[in-house]
Amino acid sequence: MIGVGDFYRRRGKRALDVVGASTALVVASPVLLAGVITVRVTLGRPVLFRQVRPGRDSRLFPLLKLRTMREATDAKGTSLPDEERLGRTGMLLRSTSIDELPTLINVIRGDMSLVGPRPLFADYLPLYSSQQLRRHEVRPGITGWAQVDGRNSLSWEEKFARDVWYVDHVSLRLDLRILLRTVATVLRRDGIAAEGHVTAPRFAPGGDGPSSLAS
Fold first, then answer.
1. Model confidence over 147-177: pLDDT tens digits?
2. How far apart are the C-alpha atoms of 1 and 9, rounded to whole Å?
3. Which of 163-166's residues contact partners 24+ apart within 8 Å by CB, and which partners?
4. Are 111 and 139 in contact (CB under 8 A)?
5. Which of 53, 62, 146, 187 is the right S-S partner for 159, CB 3.0 to 4.6 Å?
């Protein structure tokens, strides 16, 4: 006999994702359209940022977001640091999480969930410990336990510990709690960046590297 918790994991969570993401996409369409126009006018093309990220069971998929960084290189053709490529438009889109709205399409397609561990860079996969790799036992989420309990102000180890805790405690009640706290976190613009970075430093076992998590 399937328990309530198992039913939610197997069926209910996906149903919540489809209904919730579809509704959110319709409601937020005017804001998304304004974001698309803003990016097109200030940053040009492409408007969407696409990057391959690992999802459930480490399967790769193209993550969709609004572009927040301008293309800028030095005399040698090397991309400038994120803080120099991320202007006012990018900071506004990120601080309000408007850049995340296209990710609702990923949820509808089944690449992601509304709630789950954030999808990170594919080149992090071989760097995880066996325990940290458990974060890929569920679909990645637009928001997650780490995002409402510290966001980018947390260390990588603290984020991953929260991700694994979520994997072990998935429930409708927890997901609704995270979604409600996400709204409050976004409105307060808490934890947008780690100290000393415009977003968050790259993950490196034993210490954080100097580069930020660009998107």
1. 888 666 678 999 999 999 999 999 999 999 9
2. 14
3. 163/117, 163/118, 163/132, 163/135, 164/131, 164/132, 164/134, 164/135, 166/115, 166/116, 166/117, 166/138
4. yes
5. 146
3-class secondary-structure state, position 114: strand
Identify the DSSP state of 92. H
**pTM for the predicted model, two decimal places:** 0.82
CA–CA separation, 113 and 143 (whole Å) = 9
Annotated domain spans of the chain: 4-188
- Cα–Cα distance, 212 to 215 (Å, whole number): 9
What are the helix (H) ranges across the chain?
A: 4-7, 13-27, 29-42, 82-85, 88-95, 103-109, 145-148, 156-168, 172-188
Would you mind telling me the total number of residues written for the chain in this entry? 215
